[in-house]
Every structure is written in C-alpha cells, then in structure tokens.
Amino acid sequence: MKNIWLPVVLMLVLSACSSDNDAPASTTPPVEEAIYFPDNGSNTWQTKSIDSLGWNTAAVAPLLSYLELKHSKSFIILVNGRIVVEEYFNGHAANTPWYWASAGKTLTATVTGIAQQDGFLNINDKVSDYLGTGWTSAPLAKENLITCRHLLTMTSGLNDALGDDVSATNLQYVADAGTRWAYHNVYVKMQDVIAQATGQTWEGYFNSSLKNKIGMTGAWTNTGTGDDLSVYWSTTRSMARFGLLALNNGNWNGLQIVNEVYFNDMATTSQNINKSYGYLWWLNGKESYHMPQTQIQFAGSLIPTAPADIFMALGKNDQKIYVIPSKNMVVIRMGEAADEENWALSGFDEDLWEKISAVIN
Predict the structure, then answer these.
(1) What does the longest C-alpha to C-alpha distance in the chain come to?
(2) d(C-alpha 19, C-alpha 96), whole Å
(3) What domains, with CATH codes, occur in the chain?
(4) pLDDT tens-digit profile of 237-277?
(5) DSSP 33
(6) Cβ(205)–Cβ(111) below 8 Å
(7) Residues 260/280, Cβ–Cβ less than 8 Å
(8) Angle separating helix axes 105-117 and 236-247, nearest 10 degrees
(9) Which of 39, 92, 110, 176 has fewest C-beta within 10 Å?
(10) What DSSP assignment string belongs to 135-191?
(11) What is the pLDDT of residues 162-202, one digit of tens each?
C-alpha cells in the first residue's frame, strides 16, 4: 500500500507547486502615472529619463543633429507633463524668448472660449455685434453674415490675397461666410471682439484669464502691419506650458481654465471644407486638408509619419506645438525656417516626425 500512495502524494505536491509558479504575481492593474504640472513662478520642472520609457536611445542623437542642422532654436518633449528631452541650439538659451508666429492663433482661440464661458461673448454672434458695422469693406449684408465662429474657422469669406493688413479697407468680400476656407489673418479681429466684450485690453484679459493662471511668461509685440496685428513671444517652456494645458483638455492642475466642451470643439473638425482644421488648431489624421494660400483640397493626412490623433499649433517658419493624446505627449519646436520661409505647414513636419517616431516607437 505504501508504494501505491507515494506517487499519488508526490503528484499532488508537484501540482500545487506548479499552480503557485504559474499564478500571476499580482492581479492589481498597473497604476497610470499622474500628469505633472510645473509650479507657477518656478524654474523647477520634473524630468523623466528616456531609458525609463523604453525608447530607442540610439535614435536620439540623429534627431538632435537633424534639429540643429534645420536651424532650430529649441526642442522639448513632455510625457505626462515631465520633460524627457530639452535641447537648445544655435546660440539660443532656455531664458531667451522667441516668436510663436501663427502658432499663437491657438492662444486667441483658447481665450475666446474663456471669454464665452465668462459670459462676455457667444461665438455664434455676428462680429459686427461687438465691433459695429464697417469693420470690413464688404457690403453690409455680407459683413453681417460673418460670425465670431467664422473667424475661428478661417471661413469669413474675406479676401486672403491682400496681405497681412487687417484694416477695414483691406478686408474685402470674396464669398459668403461659411462657404470658403482661406488661411487669413482676419482671425486677429477676435482679439478686438474680446477687448470690446470684456471692457479690457486684449493683452490684459489674456494675461488674467490664461497666461498668469498657467505660469507662462511672454508678451504680445505689434508687427506694425495693419492694425492690432500682434505676435506672441515667449520662452520655449512657456510654450510647453500651453501645450500641457491642451494635452489636459483645458485643465491646469485641477483648475478648468477653458471648459472641456469648448476645448473638444476647438480640437475637432470645425467645418466641411478643410477637415484638418478646428478653431485655429490644425488636425492630423483626417481624410483631406487644405494648405495656406491655396484653394486646392489634398487627399489624406497632414503628416502621415505622425500619430493620427495629433492636433497642432503651427506657425510661420516652423514654430510647432504638437499635442499627442494617445501618447500623453507634447512636442515643441522653435526656430528659423527649417528649409525655406513658409506659412505654417512644410515638408519639415513629415521629416521631423520620421525621426521622432524612430525614438519613441
């Protein structure tokens, strides 16, 4: 009998050991890393190593060499708000301001949403409700078709071929509002609308409603072209702060700066003409797009080499804020034109994302 039961006992013991070894170490799901926000008024910013993310470290040096070669001033990658890459090139420094160019359009769109939630304006109102009639040289009936939303979506119907001047004589009728998409500096009239609606200067309201709340530095500088056409200048980290706000759907460390419904609308296709445009934000991964200064529709995504869910603030001469929700990432590039002067988009976007993708994938 002893010889019969001994193998049975051994089998039971071995089975129990095997079960213990095969069991998962833990049934608790991994805790997702909380998003980090740098303190206002502080130069301290948490970092995260490339190794900890499992990225391809061998591809980092080629990326940075390419950025330097392409006349970059600065470059930052954030993941969950933490700095993973921060580099300065060609004599630029962390405390040196640089211009946002048209990437700053997204600041205007964001402050418009804040002014709307504060009850000062409604983007579906006519622009002339705030600025009075005669702010363009279009026939009155055509001018009265233009809403604030048309300014935010580049569908005012005003002539985009007359340069940067946004004085009334230079804002001429081409098509009914909402029927034509054209990249045009007339968007800056939203700053005048906000000033009139709030009873403050544009910069004063911008500072109190957005800039100061997220700890940005910088200032608006008038270009001297037309009336009220100004460009924002700041450090690269200030641009990164705004990108981090965008990544977190308008929320800064628990404070909802701009309500999430408006923010989602801002970063979503805003009209049926240029599917790759929201409220002054560019959108990747759509079925078609228009380029600045053309009426041609191109098939496919803006940047095929980049994640499809990117939304972007893009400025003249390759000023870039890329927001990538699927990767909890923000990427900033400031500098001179990578190849040649351009309005906002260029072939540089696609080439740059080939090199970024080699690092992060």
Answers:
(1) 110
(2) 61
(3) 51-360 (3.40.710.10)
(4) 999 999 999 999 999 999 999 999 999 999 999 999 999 99
(5) P
(6) yes
(7) no
(8) 50
(9) 39
(10) SSSS-HHHHTT-BHHHHHHT-S-B-TTS-S--SGGG--B-S-TTS-----GGGGHHH
(11) 988 999 999 999 999 999 999 999 999 999 999 999 999 99
